[in-house]
Each structure stands twice: as structure tokens, then as C-alpha cells.
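Re: Re: C-alpha cell formats

Sure, here are both.
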Amino acid sequence: MKRTNRLWWLGGIVIAAIALLTLIAAPSTSYISNGSTYNRAPDGYGAWYAYMQKQGVKIERWQKPFEEIKANSVTLLRVNSQITPSELDFEEEKWIKQGNTLVILGVKGAITKAEFSTLQSSSVGDIKIETSKRSPNKKSSLELGDIFGAVVWSEKVGKGQAIFATTPYLAANAYQDYPSNFQYLAQLVTKNSQIFVDEYSHGYRDKTDIESQGDRNWLEYLAKTPLSPLLLQVGVLLLVLIWAQNRRFGAPASLETPVIDNNLAYIQALAGVLEKAESSEFIVNVVGKEEQLQLQKALGLGKIPLEHQALVDNWVQQTKNSSTQLQQLLRHSSQPSRLSDKELLDWLDKWQKIRDRTSS
């Protein structure tokens, strides 16, 4: 029963750790959905998409990779969820040259001294713009802008064109009170017969695309997964497993039962009692007698306790050392007094020195 509970606890910890790491490492969902037509928040484009449908415009959400757009005379609207450079890649440029139009809102622009909130004149009325970012617009056709640079501009590419805007919120839900904004974006994208809104970049996938992705093997998954979050999750998982099992990798090592030394246990227990009772006199008396007996044995004087003076005379005769310290130790042992811990250690150290001099 205990093992089952432990496994449940272990599983819960692992799941919680992975979930926490996923939330930390994964990009913010709200950030990715900026500009999505499925998003009803102020930074979404749901209201503009509904507006286009009411106008009877042929518009469709595109939820597949860019490379799968096969039709011609198409306009693709891409509302970036982050600021990106306006340069086109090879596949995009090739596609536009065939007569298609690519509209990208929210590209890179320089921060200028322009006021953040302005009204820009257009053929459909004043357009509400809330950004101070502008493009130099040196080789492009100005669609919308001021003395500080272009807010919306277009570039001719082969038979088609690319249209860029420094703001990703040109016709966002927040501008529903500015109908000119909705009309202006509608005018930009209705240059071709078919209009696609890129939802693939916002994380939305077509059913057939999801099924094809499901066929990928785990090596492809690892190749496309950011390495840092993956290693972090694996590391935390291993740490949790090691902690839960309370052992390192490999089979558990059996612990040897320690051999109990009864004499040592008795001495340690007695020492603890004497220390609490502050009975250093008893220790001095007992240890002093034992030290005297060991000294007699070392001098070859037998086991019968001798008079202190006789012991001192023999020690001096054999070791050629001064008798002063030994006389003090023997006197203290026969007339013990209470000693502090430091004094007791000093007393034992002096006996150690007597033994060293005797054996040398």
C-alpha cells in the first residue's frame, strides 16, 4: 500500500514539473494569437474578418504552410505576432512574381519623432495609426505616411506586389469605431480574386496538415524542438526520479549492519552522564590512577601502585627529564578538583606528553 502511494506521489511530481516547465519554456499563447481572425481581443482581427464576409468578399483562413498555396492571383494577408524584417525570402518573392500579392502588417521600422497616435489621410478617409515607427520609403510606393516616413508602402515584385505596414494593428478589433481603418485594409487586400488570411503563423493547423504531422517520427520531433527546454525537462525528470528512489543509477546497494562495541557504547554513555553532572573530579581520579598504572608498566615497575615519590624517582632516572610536571599530575590525581573542559583537555595533554617522553 505504501509503495502504491509513493508511486502516485512520484507521478504527480513528474507531471507537475513537466507542466511547469512547459508553461515557462513555451511561447505565450496570447502573444501568438495577436492579429488572428479567431482572436476577439482588442489586438485580434475577428471583427475585420466578419466585416469582410458581410461585404461578400471571397476570403478564407489559410491554415497550411505558405509553400502549399498553389492558386494564382491570390492575396495573402499576414499579421505578424512579432516585429520582423520586411525582406522577402526566396519562396515568397518567387510566389509574388507570379502575379500574387503579399500584405504583411507589423514589419520592422525605425522609431521616429512622430507622435504615437496620428490620423493619416487616405482615399477612404482618415486612418487611425498608433505607432511612431516609420520606414524611409526610398525605393517603394508610399501608400500611407507623413514627413517622418511611410506607415504603409508597396513594392513591385515581378507581376505582383508586396505591401508592408509598420503597425500590426491597422484594422484590429480595437479600431471598430474607425470604419475607415477596416475599409482601407479591405482596399489593400482586394487587388486579386482570392484572399487568404494567414492563420498558420498563429498556430492554427488544417486537419489534413495535423494528420500529416502526426506521421513524423520522434527524430523529426527532436530535430524541430528547441534544445534548451527539452534538456531542461529531461534534467528535472532525472532529478525527480533520483530523489524519489533515494539512490544513484544502478541497483540499490545493501547496507552492512554495524558491529556494536558494547564497551565503547558504555564509555560514551558514561561520559555523557559525567559531562552533564559536571563530575570532572571523578574523571581525574579514575583516569589519573590508570595513567599512573600504565606509566609503571612502561617503566617496568609492575602493576602494584607505588608511592608517588618512588614513581617520580624511577621516571627521572630512566628518562632524564624534569620531575616537576609528573609530580603535579600525580598530586592532582590524588586530590582531584573540578576542572573546566579546557582545563581537563590540558590535563590529558600533559599525560600524553609524559607517555611520549617515557617511550622515547
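Second one below.
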Amino acid sequence: MLKSTDKPIAEAYRLALLDLDGVVYRGKNPVEHAAASIRAAERLGMTIEYTTNNSSRFQRVVADQLRGFDLDVEPHQVITSSVVAARMVARHVPAGAKVLVLGAEHLREEVVSQGLTLADGPEDDPVAVIQGWYPQMTWQEMANVSFAVERGAMYLVTNRDLTIPRELGIAPGCGSMIQAVINATGVEPVASAGKPESAMYDEARLLAAGDGNEPVAKELCLAIGDRLDTDIEAGTRGGYDALAVLTGVTNPRELMLAPAHLRPTYIVKDLRGLLEVQPAVTRNGDGVWTCGNAKATLDKTAGTLTVSDATSLDALRAACDAMWDFADNGGDPEAIALPEFAL
């Protein structure tokens, strides 16, 4: 069920683990109200770490883009899957060990920064392989990953996103390329740095704290994103509260039908929600749920869910709790006619 707060979210949590695409920007363009809300949240004491499955863009490049939105961002605040992957492999292999890298220069730099040695190919007998994604990757590079994995190298990947949006449409992502290596070798990666694994959030906590300092407690960290199957799932897997924004992929229907592992702790329209107290959802009677002045009514006999105001975010919150409770008690969510929200 959704949680409520007695203070603005930016005061209730100390560290925001903030997704980028669909939350802060869409490609080159800023998301409405995002930058101003982030600046206001920081003034209230919230620390911001930006987390992204992208393994090809340098931290400094992302930070420069965010500064262009008038945000005060240092490169170390941008946690990419390359940063996480390099730190992960460094924990599993000896210092100076040879690692074969398939990925952009950012990933290669991160591996070297962890005191590891770049292997030229499978002939170098690398102890580990990290597979990432970049537009110029070749068949030979993927074959080299397969050869190294077949020789026994530990297999790690930056993320398992099956698709990636490009200028001309949807293209195969890192996960599709990984599947080709799995098909060739029969070997599954031992770990993935990207969401929906929680490793990115765990590493972000450590990096935000700095060497030798105690990281912010999990209950004071908030995962924020627009995708239930990456950002929110990574939060639930890792034991973090999670906030879903409606400025990207996630839509009301997806939220109402979300299984337990994809459910956020809070739902907001955009990042202005960081500055707001989150209202409680209460059950008033059989099938009736209220949030603020809005109401959702689930009629199991008729197979319908109705709301008092389809333009109200509070109505969506009430509707989500109604549907989640129904599903958790053995109901079939797909059998319910859901309201069409216009938020």
C-alpha cells in the first residue's frame, strides 16, 4: 500500500536516488518543473544522486547537461552503470587483474580507475568480462566476449535493458546483445550493474557518503523514477522506498495493475511532489477508498472500479490501493474495468 508523510518528501528523506531520462530530462530537453524542484529539495536538505543505466555517457558530460538546466551538479553525483560495473568487478577479482571490456570509453576508463588492467582480447586470458553497450560495437567484439566466457572468465554486464530509444525508433539494447552471448555460451551473467538490480542504489549510497563515512540509512533514501520495471523494481529489490513520477513511461493503468514487486511507495505527477506532504489513503468501507477529497470504489460484483474525479492524483492513489488490495487478496485485476485518468 502507498505510504503517507507528515512533512514534504524532501524533508522526510535525506538522499534521493534520482533517475534521469523521463524524470529530469527527455533527451536534450528538460522535464517541466524538474530543475526548480530539485533545487528546492536541496535547499530543504536533500542530497541528490543521479542514477542511470546508460553506460556510454561520461559522468562529466551528463553533469554538463544538467548544469545547462541551472542545476548545481558535480560529475561524481552521476552514477552510471559503468561506474557500478567497474566497482562490482573490482570486488570480485585481484588488484591489477585483466578484464575484457565491451563498451564505450567511459566503461574502459572506470575499469582502469579501479586498478584493473584492460585485456586486449580472449587470448590474454582475462579473469572477468564486462559487457556494456555503445553504438559502434561490432560482431567481433561480441564474439570475443563469448570466447572469454567460454574460457571461464567471470561474466558481468552493465544493464539488461532489451531496448534503447534512438532517433529513428526503438533499437536493440544492451540486454539484447547480452542474450546473444548467452545463446552462444549457455552462461548467464553473474551480476548486472543496472536497474532493476539494486546494486546501483547501493553503490550510490556508498559514493554519496565518501570513503570511510557511514552511508545514509536505507530508510532515509528514496529511489525516484518513471519506470516501474527498472527504477521502482530496483527500489523494492533493495529495500528502498520508491517514488514514481508520471513524466515518463509509467501511466495510471500500469500503476493500478502493478504486481507487488513493481509498486511504488509514493505517486506524484512530477518532481514538484518532492516538496509536498504525501496524503494518506484510507479504506472507508467495503470497496471504498479515499485520499484527500477523492474516492475510488471497487464493485467486485459488477467488475468495475470508479473514481470521483478522473483528473485527480488523489483519486489515482486511492484507485491503486483499492486494486492492490484486491489483487493481494486473490482477485484478478485484469477482470476489472478501470477508469481512464486524464492527469
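The chain has a mean pLDDT of 95. The longest strand covers residues 47-52.
- S.
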